[in-house]
Amino acid sequence: MFDLNSILRENIRRVKPYSSARDDFSGEASVWIDANENPFNTGINRYPDPHQQEVKRLLAQIKGVDIENLFIGNGSDEIIDLLYRIVCEPSKSNAIILPPTYGMYAVSADINDVVVKKVYLNEDFSPNVEAILNAIDKETRIIFICSPNNPTGSIIPQDVIEKIAASFDGLVVVDEAYIDFAPEATVVGLIDRYPNIYVMQTLSKAWGMAGARLGIGIGSTAIQSVMAKVKAPYNVNILSQQVAVNTLGDVEGFRLKLQTILEEREWLQKELSTIDVVQKVYPSDANFLLVRFIDFHSVFRYLVDNGIVARDRSKEKWCEGCIRLTIGTPDENLFLLETLRTYKMQ
Ligand SMILES: *Cc1c(COP(=O)(O)O)cnc(C)c1O
């Protein structure tokens, strides 16, 4: 059965966390001369809350989880890095990823000197469960599952995630960066039953705060207390925390924009499939469409020449000739379609 202590790195287990200036104090005070800050108020002259309590209080309500099960990172990228650092022994441990998928799992593994084992999705983008289970060895510490997956837009079914979690005594990290576009697919409800499942979400996509760098980790209190002691004390700056509190307070504004993106996705999907040069539009549970083009190279160049920057995914497994198109504003989507309609086949 899963035992976090048995996979934590020895040095991490021993780390005594830095105790920040305000950790030892709770109550009312009028003079703060404990942290060598500049006393003149500019709104940012004080260090931020190292535990991001206000942000977490709102997130806990929105996500329906306890505050103690939340971690906030400087983007999901920080969370991925921290997960590697707490359980992976450099040049020894390995992680399993399921390409075609998000590139940061492999980049962050390389930075941390962790071996990456690739178990490709099937051609229909379903997971090859047997191959995943067969790839696990005694040095495997993390399996990354992205759902809805980038760049395929497909969901990994909950029963598959449960099966993997039940058969593995390392961390199963489920990256739900796009979950707001398919909320029924979340596996957050599994973290109590499977203490090795760690869910990542983000405020970068549906919540519209990519520039503020706010990633969310949802998992057991045991994992979160290790994450908390390994992170930089002030990993989320005060401006980002303020923006998060303001934006998370406007759930109605969030819903309206989300609804527009979902409607535009349905419409764009339908319209794209009527265009000559489009060979296939994959179904998507995210805020992008993976589209296969005839004449891929010249279509891509044609888009760039018209000021449209999309993501070339053509070199990814099963994605030959594919471009990933993010759903834009209604005007941007219309412009994209008009541009593609005027393309002349070579
Ligand atoms: C966009 C994206 C993220 C978000 O990363 P942040 O660092 O939180 O902005 C995470 N995972 C996947 C798969 C993504 O596509």
Layout of helices and strands, plus pairs?
Elements: H1 4-7, H2 10-14, H3 53-63, E1 70-73, H4 76-87, E2 94-97, H5 104-111, E3 115-118, H6 129-135, E4 140-146, H7 158-166, E5 171-175, E6 197-202, E7 215-218, H8 221-230, H9 238-248, H10 251-272, E8 278-281, E9 288-293, H11 296-305, E10 311-312, E11 322-326, H12 330-341
Parallel strand pairs: 2-3, 2-4, 4-5, 5-6
Antiparallel strand pairs: 1-7, 6-7, 8-9, 9-11, 10-11
Bound molecules: pyridoxal-5'-phosphate (PLP).
Describe the structure.
The protein has 346 residues and is of the alpha/beta class. It is 35% helix and 15% strand. It contains twelve helices and eleven strands. Strands 1-7-6-5-4-2-3 form a seven-stranded mixed sheet, with helices on both faces. Strand 2, helix 5 (104-111) and strand 3 (115-118) form a beta-alpha-beta unit. Helix 3 (53-63) runs parallel beside helix 9, helix 4 (76-87) packs across helix 5 (104-111) and helix 10 (251-272) packs parallel to helix 12. The protein is globular, with a radius of gyration of 22 Å. Pyridoxal-5'-phosphate (PLP) binds at residues 75-77, 102, 146, 150, 175, 177, 202, 204-205, 210, 215.
In DSSP terms (H or I, runs of 4 or more residues), the helix count works out at 12
Q: What is the helix/strand order?
A: HHHEHEHEHEHEEEHHHEEHEEH
Strand order of the largest sheet: 1-7-6-5-4-2-3
What's the end-to-end separation, in Å? 59 Å
Oligomeric state of the chains?
A: single chain
The overall pLDDT, averaged over residues, is 97
List keywords for this structure.
binds pyridoxal-5'-phosphate; alpha/beta; 35% helix; 346 residues; 7-stranded mixed β-sheet; globular
